[in-house]
Records
---
Amino acid sequence: MSDKQDTENAEVYQTESRVEQPTVPAAAPKKKGFLAHLKRFWWAYLLVLICGVVLAVCLTIFVGVPKIAQQKVNDAKLEIQGVNVINTKPNSITLQINSTITTDGSIKANIDAFDGVMYLEDLPGQTPFLNISFPATNGDKHQLVNISQDITIEDHDAFNTFNIWFAANQTLNVTVYGKTKVKPSGLSKKFGVTFKKTINMNGLNLFNGTTVSDGKIDISAKKGQPNFKATADIPNASYFTLEIGNATFTNFIDNTNIGNLTIPNLLLVPGSNKVPITADLDQVAVLEEVQTPKYCKTGIIPVKLKGAAVVNDGQTLQYFLDGLSANNETVPMDIGSIIKSSLGTTVSCPKS
Ligand SMILES: *[C@@H]1O[C@H](CO)[C@@H](O)[C@H](O)[C@H]1NC(C)=O
Ligand SMILES: *[C@@H]1O[C@H](CO)[C@@H](O)[C@H](O)[C@H]1NC(C)=O
Ligand SMILES: *[C@@H]1O[C@H](CO)[C@@H](O)[C@H](O)[C@H]1NC(C)=O
Ligand SMILES: *[C@@H]1O[C@H](CO)[C@@H](O)[C@H](O)[C@H]1NC(C)=O
Ligand SMILES: *[C@@H]1O[C@H](CO)[C@@H](O)[C@H](O)[C@H]1NC(C)=O
Ligand SMILES: *[C@@H]1O[C@H](CO)[C@@H](O)[C@H](O)[C@H]1NC(C)=O
Ligand SMILES: *[C@@H]1O[C@H](CO)[C@@H](O)[C@H](O)[C@H]1NC(C)=O
Ligand SMILES: *[C@@H]1O[C@H](CO)[C@@H](O)[C@H](O)[C@H]1NC(C)=O
Ligand SMILES: *[C@@H]1O[C@H](CO)[C@@H](O)[C@H](O)[C@H]1NC(C)=O
Ligand SMILES: CC(=O)N[C@H]1CO[C@H](CO)[C@@H](O)[C@@H]1O
């Protein structure tokens, strides 16, 4: 029995001693024991300290720095000064963007070039309509980022839809999204960050505010020749320059088709666009309409324009055509005055 106990005790002791070897002389006075312990195991503490410092540095670099880098990218402001959409072809465009990126400049860091997509923020699905290559930048306070590239339109539906929104809406939200890498100066490592900026931009607002002046009717025009000439002043509240080409619109007074109107070689620039227009109008229909009780008093008719054809260098540009035909643009035309100055007759109201 006692034999067995001894064995058990021995076993227990052995187990304990294996685990708590460093504290075995715990029976000795505490202070002395600790010093002795320190003397013997200083290297372990040093190791722990070094590991701690290394860990802290690692955490800062691998967790803190990426977080800060992402925060700085999030805080950066992207502003666009101008966009040119030129060399417009059915399947490609040349896109030029003048933009600035503003940061607080507190971190010096190089940001890699990256491919970003653009999509309509407020259209569910957020399908990209364009891919753009963004150049490498640094963390400077104020940077010019000018881009010029030939872009293939890969998703025609998405690009057509963007053009419909851009033509119709007063404002629209476009998001630029991409993944890139940031290299803070002084560190050799690069960290992945997400670049996502939503830009609230002005659309064309269906050319609201367009005016038509100097209208002249040519009654001697042969059939198929334009019988109406005028100057249109088309406002472009956006910062886009668009190479549209020959744009033809079907004109309506209420639901009556009164013929076609063409704006040749339309290059729409920001601000005011004074362009010549020609039209092949159904003069009988126009005369009938202007004499109805609705319009005869003022002679001013809100003419509705719906895109019928957009042709640039012989090719149809479906995306602009969609933009100009999805909604009617309404332009008030002083038909009464045009008739008076061209034909010398005054529009009269029907006698009742
Ligand atoms: C960018 O700025 C340059 C110089 O002012 C100008 O010539 C060019 O048309 C601008 N491009 C765009 C897209 O605004
Ligand atoms: C870049 O765009 C800015 C306008 O944002 C313009 O002042 C500058 O001249 C442009 N630079 C080049 C090289 O086109
Ligand atoms: C953008 O590029 C990616 C990969 O190159 C491609 O899968 C995607 O369809 C492109 N999107 C658009 C809208 O062009
Ligand atoms: C923008 O215009 C499109 C097409 O007319 C319309 O469906 C959409 O609701 C508009 N979106 C906003 C946010 O105004
Ligand atoms: C765009 O975003 C802004 C700010 O997030 C919001 O106020 C606005 O309603 C959005 N839609 C349009 C069409 O501007
Ligand atoms: C169109 O412009 C007129 C003034 O030119 C303005 O009163 C009206 O609110 C505008 N409509 C839209 C939808 O912006
Ligand atoms: C444009 O006006 C015509 C003629 O009134 C009409 O038939 C057509 O539905 C209108 N289109 C839209 C999108 O309102
Ligand atoms: C108007 O133009 C369209 C497209 O060019 C054409 O299909 C249509 O026949 C024209 N309509 C009239 C009345 O000239
Ligand atoms: C517009 O049409 C006219 C006459 O058909 C043509 O000479 C001209 O080249 C066209 N312009 C464009 C930009 O396609
Ligand atoms: C009438 C109109 O909306 N005009 C605007 C056209 O665009 C420029 C800027 O690109 C604005 O300053 C105008 O107010």
Note: The first strand starts at residue 77 and ends at 86.
---
Amino acid sequence: MRMFEPPKPAAVLLLVLVLWYSAESAIAVPSRSQLHQDALQEQRPLVFAQQGNGEVVEIGETKGLKGRFLHITDFHPDPFYEPYTSTSSDNACHSGHGPAGYYGAETSDCDSPLTLVNATFAWIAQHLASEIDFIVWTGDSARHDNDESIPRTESQVIAQNRLLVSHFRTVFGKHNGDEGDDDPTNDFTVPIVPSIGNNDILPHNIFEEGPNHWTKQYASLWRSFIPEEQRHAFEQGGWFYVEVVPDHLAVFSLNTMYFFGKNAGVDGCADSGEPGYEAFEWLRVRLQLLRERGMKAILSGHVPPARTDSKTQWDETCWQKYALWLRQYRDVIVGGLWGHMNVEHFMLQDFHEIDWNVLEVDGTGEDDSNQGSTKKHEDGEFGIASSQDYLKDLREQWADLPTPPPGMFQEELVKEALSSISDDARPEWEVEHFVRHQPRALKAKKTKEEKQREQFLKEIGGKWHERYGISLVSASVVPNFFPTMRVFEYNTTGIDLQNAFDKDGKTGLMRAEEVLQRLAQNQAVDEQLGEDSDDEAAERKKHKKKKGKKSKRPKFTIPAPPSKSTPPGPAYSPQPFTLLGYSQYYANLTEINNDFHDSSLAASTYSSAAEEGWQETGEAWMDWFGSILKWKEGKHHDKKPNKSKPRPKEFSFQIEYDTRHDKLYKLKDLTVGSWVKLARRIGTKEKIDDATISDDDLVTHLEDSRSLIEEEGRNVEDGKEVDTEKKHKHKKGKKKKDKKKHKKNKVWHAFINRAFVSTMDPGEIDDKYQ
Ligand SMILES: *[C@@H]1O[C@H](CO)[C@@H](O)[C@H](O)[C@H]1NC(C)=O
Ligand SMILES: *[C@@H]1O[C@H](CO)[C@@H](O)[C@H](O)[C@H]1NC(C)=O
Ligand SMILES: *[C@@H]1O[C@H](CO)[C@@H](O)[C@H](O)[C@H]1NC(C)=O
Ligand SMILES: *[C@@H]1O[C@H](CO)[C@@H](O)[C@H](O)[C@H]1NC(C)=O
């Protein structure tokens, strides 16, 4: 890196910041309480309040927070798409004659027609625009290079990205006439945080160290989204952040191209010469600043930190740093939002997997201590994994989650029992009393249980499951399945926006960022490297003890952990900015395109396409062999439309499921603890009457088991039905199933169904995902 120099330990940097503040009082950063006091003293009305992207408005005009935001990803607009062309790999919905629908060829690898993009924004304008506080938009906003006769060009990639920006402007632009002023960031009604996808650059998957052509292109294209003071940093690395709730919450756009294992232009995050290394330095300093200011952060980016035996997206050194950062800043980070894989799912980052042998590799390229990890994460080694392998791997991981001892939540059971006797809920003290005065036998048992309970809590990182981080992957707009998007709800209790801005309409964080930018350009400061903070020293010492003599000094500053007195962060315990739930929306293109209604006709061919053909769209399709691999032709591929002109129905998204009311997932919120419980339920394979099963939510568990039994009964019936009605269908699969009589884990099946946005035939899920 030319402009950014090597590590800046947080302690030194912050000290410098403090000095800088006192030296330059003109840019002093007022604390929140200071501002508050000023306001009180002057007895002036609190005139400053945020509106959307940080514009300062009079308090009377404040819209207030809606407590919702949109996550949307992977549009892949394709201006060459033509309806009623062929979905085959040779045609890619550009030519030939076939089933490509007016709004897109669902379940195929074709890209999105502009009609779909248009209709999606029109729908958002009508149904969401006034309901959300900000937008996380995680990239891949250009078509794939999927047609030899129309190769992708740079001007296409940019024009398609520009098209999407203009759509966002149409729906979320203020249109107040000041678009021409010198502040492009005040043109939108809500903050929008885009990130760079692997198809937003050329050649796709290759992204070199910045500043480069592409970082400059996007600095220009996204000038309305990137805060002024970060423009320069963005040109360096393609990363930035936005205070989506000023002085309270920031969304980070990470440039995952620098973490992406497939990016041949860079090499991981361990070597201080790599942009991936710089990305984590940049992120650490900002997260530290947010911590100091009592703010929270959502991380986002295009390529998710997927890491299973069959599929790994990031270079291992980047994953390691990410996990370490998540752990150290677990008081700040709300969670991670990602796109790219098109399969909707979630993943847990297990902090026990943090491996100092990987983190400590020095820059010489010698890797005597990290053989295990490099081997595992060599890209070509897995070949092209199917979604089936990947999702099953996830389940295997989750099957190994620590299980609470039976009876761990006895108190809750007692409470439940008590409350069902009487209409009045029993007070805490009464329950405690009851438990304490149980018969001796029970009591003796309980001390043993108590031990197990302690052991369990130790294993999962305490009551709030602080052993894990959470990453949520949304499926795409491009209809590899059905077009989809997510609206999150978050906790806005007690969030006070009144003192977010100073008299110049700046937040403390904006001030600090200005200083950081100046420091970055003032290279002299970067010389001040060196001393570990106490926390770092302690961390290193701990590590040394574990690893013995082999320890090498890490070449990076270890982020400071939360202080001992800091309560758990919003990812762990319910508080402001904790994610409460999300609604997953989808557009049923089969219905809307209105071409093929007899879905049973295509069921068999389609389902195998959905399950085997998954390839992160275009990712693998020319990977290593230079030939087309596993192109998905979609469920209608063998059909021809019976019309000369498309007659689509009215376009609309509908709710696939809403976690706040979902009886299968039972997520009472989106804290890590809730996800761990869900993951454990998905991972469960034993039969329900096995005494070995336990769950920390026994009631949930009983319900699950009841549905397991019901499901099985229904399956057999279904089987008969199918056998008599459609003898020729799924014959093989059915037979197998009847013989095996597998117990069905309803939650796992729901997870699979949702991974493919409800496009997969339930019978197929039964067969393939036992
Ligand atoms: C999309 O909408 C714009 C106007 O909003 C229109 O000019 C354009 O023709 C539309 N494109 C398609 C493909 O429907
Ligand atoms: C939101 O946060 C508040 C206070 O931090 C908490 O009391 C409340 O229970 C939370 N709400 C939900 C729905 O979790
Ligand atoms: C989508 O629409 C088709 C055709 O109307 C219907 O058969 C199918 O069940 C629908 N799927 C979902 C998930 O809504
Ligand atoms: C096309 O659909 C019409 C009814 O909409 C039907 O009468 C006709 O037989 C169909 N033609 C073919 C070739 O399927």
Note: The two ends are 50 Å apart (CA to CA).
